UniProtKB/TrEMBL annotation:
GO terms for MF: DNA binding; DNA-binding transcription factor activity; pyridoxal phosphate binding; transaminase activity
Keyword tags: Aminotransferase, DNA-binding, Pyridoxal phosphate, Transcription, Transcription regulation, Transferase
Cofactor(s) required for function per UniProt: pyridoxal 5'-phosphate
Lineage: Bacteria, Bacillati, Bacillota, Bacilli, Bacillales
Pfam families: Aminotran_1_2 (PF00155), GntR (PF00392)
Protein's name in the database: PLP-dependent aminotransferase family protein
Length: 492
């Protein structure tokens, strides 16, 4: 048997977590190389004198995070965790440039930025775009995706050309339920999952489930304006609840009278706050006492770079008060337009009674392709690869920002997601700074439009996305920002 010697201590923490951490450290240190076969569950449980469940849970966590893969009738094997290689040295290389859409406009402070013009009257081309939701499309598994799409489109599978299940393709819902249980601690059966074409579609369906117009829904202040827009158009009263250092103010929520609250606890948009366990319990207590519902949007929960991911809020819920939302837009590609929600049993019954006639909004072909992608293990391998890549980009972004703008900025919202939030010490507004940047060919994205109420004495803040940029592009773009923003910056 493979030489393994974990030191497991009863009572310190769950044994499976200790075993999981041991294997993760061995793999990260290169002591267990790619392709190494791990001991079988039976053999390892006997050798360590622990239950098979302990070993299985440790292996499943490693599997969910992409450190190992399961091969049919063969066992568990270490994957290549250094698959993508180094991102390259930042210094000493000629910065790469990207060409953005010429004259494209971006929303900032509720207004559209006016496109900067060159002396000849033509718009300034955007060379560096720090959009917070852009993903790394270069490493998308094109060949595997094409293989499964072709498999779906075989003539003998012509049924895929017709309307599918209104809640979403059964195979995809089965795979989702399994994955969410292992990776995010979500309690879900395939029957509870509803699939749709984007988070805003999911919110629209929830709005119909919640009933008459005029009800109040609470939202984080600041918070995701795309959801706020949908609720407002559906006739809900929006109650903005200010954030504390660890997330939404639960006491203020209780005083608001709202029965519904939309939150992003794993990586608050735009502050980046990760809601700790204690506050999650307080929020659940609010829901249980009021009979309210918590809408948990776990839009990029797969990406946490330092420390172990906190399990979903829904996984802590024992009274059916949490609606869990997720999307494939960040972890895969936004263009496939597949999101999903897990409904508590009480709301599921209302859904089937009132919304059973709503046709599915997401492409059936994409759903079936994704189901095969997940069933064959490619999804979890892809997540592990992208987590490795994004961690490197995240760390590079923090280093470059500190190096170039350190005395003038405050970094927030790091260690998770595809962006970091940056407060800039300047007397200029966020919109003015964004326009100065655009005139130099750099697109940055203020957070001001994510506030409902005025910001008093707040510094201009921006979300800097790193997912779709190389390290060289980040370096060149932020160096250029430092140059054009320099006259307007003051030390904190």
């Amino acid at each position: 048997m493979l030489d393994v010697s974990p030191h497991l201590v009863e009572g310190k923490e769950a044994l499976y977590l200790q075993l999981y951490r041991y294997f993760r450290a061995e793999i990260q240190a290169g002591k267990l190389s790619s392709g190494t076969r791990l001991p079988s569950v039976r053999a390892l449980s006997g050798f360590l004198q622990v239950s098979k469940t302990t070993v299985e849970c440790a292996y499943h966590q490693l599997l969910a995070e992409g450190y190992i893969e399961s091969r049919e009738r063969s066992g568990f094997y270490v994957v290549d965790v250094e698959w993508d290689g180094p991102l390259g040295e930042r210094l000493g290389k000629k910065p790469a440039q990207t060409t953005g859409a010429v004259g494209a406009s971006a929303v900032a402070s509720g207004c559209r930025q006016k496109a900067a013009e060159q002396p000849d009257g033509h718009p300034v081309p955007i060379r560096y775009d720090f959009h917070q939701a852009r993903v790394d499309a270069e490493h998308f598994p094109y060949e595997r995706w094409r293989k499964y799409t072709n498999q779906c489109m075989q003539k003998e599978n012509r049924n895929v050309l017709h309307y599918g299940d209104r809640q979403g393709e059964p195979l995809l819902r089965e795979e989702l339920a399994r994955y969410l249980s292992r990776a995010r601690g979500v309690q879900a059966t395939p029957e509870q999952i509803v699939i749709g074409a984007g988070t805003q579609i999911m919110i629209s369906l929830l709005g119909f489930l919640f009933g008459p117009r005029g009800q109040a829904v609470a939202m984080e202040e600041p918070g995701y304006n795309g959801v706020r827009f949908v609720f407002a158009r559906l006739g809900f009263d929006i109650c903005p609840i200010r954030l504390e250092e660890d997330g939404i103010d639960v006491e203020a929520l209780g005083k608001s009278g709202a029965r519904y609250v939309y939150i992003t606890p794993s990586h608050q948009d735009p502050s980046g706050i990760v809601m700790p366990y204690g506050k999650r319990l307080k929020l659940l207590q609010w829901a249980n006492q009021t009979g309210g519902y918590i809408i948990e949007d776990d839009y990029d929960g797969e990406f946490r770079y330092h420390g172990r991911p906190i399990p979903s809020l829904q996984g802590l819920d024992t009274h059916g008060r949490v609606i869990y939302l997720g999307t494939f837009s960040k972890a895969l590609l936004p263009s496939i337009r597949i999101s999903y929600m897990v409904l508590p049993q009480e709301l599921l019954a209302i859904y089937r009674e009132q919304l059973a006639d709503y046709e599915q909004s997401a492409s059936r072909i994409h759903q079936e392709t994704l189901a095969l992608f997940m069933k064959n293990g490619d999804w979890e391998r892809h997540i592990r690869k992208m987590r490795t890549l994004y961690r490197k980009k995240h760390d590079a972004m923090l280093h470059i920002l500190q190096e170039q703008l350190g005395p003038y900025i405050l970094l927030k919202g790091q260690d998770a997601g595809l962006s970091v939030t940056v407060e800039v010490s300047s007397d200029r507004t966020a919109l003015e700074l964004a326009q100065i940047a655009a005139a130099a060919g750099v697109r940055v994205y203020p957070t001001s439009h994510k506030w409902m109420e005025p910001q008093y004495k707040g510094l201009p803040a921006f979300q800097f996305g790193f997912g779709g940029l190389t390290t060289e592009e980040m370096d060149a773009g932020i160096r250029l920002l430092q140059k054009v923003w320099g006259p307007y910056l003051r030390k904190r």
